[in-house]
Amino acid sequence: MDDADAYAIELDRDVAPPAYRSGDLVVLSPRAAVRRADRVLLCTRSGELLFGVLDRRTLNRVVLEPLDSERPPRELPQGDVAWMVRIVWLSQ
């Protein structure tokens, strides 16, 4: 990986089985550009962590599609987003 700032997290719960399960390692790149249809990890200003697929990002809002089809898309005001990083790799 050509990103010195990339880091991995180990999931402690199932996020979207069977794709993202407890024990999986997810590699995140804070330097990678986040574009539509990228899988991302988003942190809200209140500390909530959300995994999803970036559907839309405007000056006013961010729309995340869930990783599983059981939940509806999540729309957040841009001001509620503390940070968002691109998922670049998954080790199961």
Task: Please explain how this structure is put together.
The chain has strands spanning 7-10, 25-29, 39-44, 49-57, 61-65, 74-77, 81-91. It contains no helices and seven strands. A seven-stranded antiparallel β-sheet has the order 1-2-7-3-4-5-6, with no helix packed on it. With 92 residues, the chain is mostly beta strands. 0% of the residues lie in helices and 48% in strands. It has one domain: Ribbon (Umud Fragment, subunit A), CATH 2.10.109.10. It starts with 6 loop residues before the first strand and ends with a strand. The mean pLDDT is 93.
Q: Give the CATH H-level superfamily.
A: Umud Fragment, subunit A
Largest sheet data: 7 strands, antiparallel
CATH class: Mainly Beta
Query: What is the helix content?
Result: under 10%
